[in-house]
Specification:
Length: 116
């Protein structure tokens, strides 16, 4: 079975009224902001701060929703829920999954930008 693309481009284009320049801008902002957000998430995980973990996961989840990065949104929602419930001994593993998905999203951007 083929891997699901990191972005639902059809949905994203519809959400942005097929404005290619706006889609490029949104994806570019995601690309630069994701690095900062991932750093903040890793710092929160390292110090074991569930409130901060939930906050950063929520922020990334919102960004992912805006750009139709559904798997990233799902992973962040799971981490946010775990952190809010205080049931996380797996925060490092969950944040690593998020980092992997952000990397997958970022790796797909050059090809996407070439089509916009």
């Amino acid at each position: 079975m083929p891997e699901t693309p990191p972005f639902d481009l059809k949905c994203l284009m519809e959400r942005c009224f097929h404005e290619r320049a706006f889609v490029r801008e949104l994806l570019g902002v995601f690309q630069s902001q994701a690095v900062r957000d991932l750093t903040a998430l890793n710092e929160a995980v390292q110090i074991g701060d569930p409130t901060r973990i939930a906050s950063v996961a929520h922020k990334i989840k919102g960004s992912a929703a805006n750009i139709s990065a559904d798997r990233l949104k799902e992973l962040c929602g799971e981490l946010e829920d775990s952190a809010n419930a205080g049931i996380g001994t797996n925060f490092a593993s969950q944040s690593a999954d998020i980092a992997d998905e952000i990397a997958r999203c970022s790796a797909s951007l050059p090809a996407i930008f070439a089509t916009l």
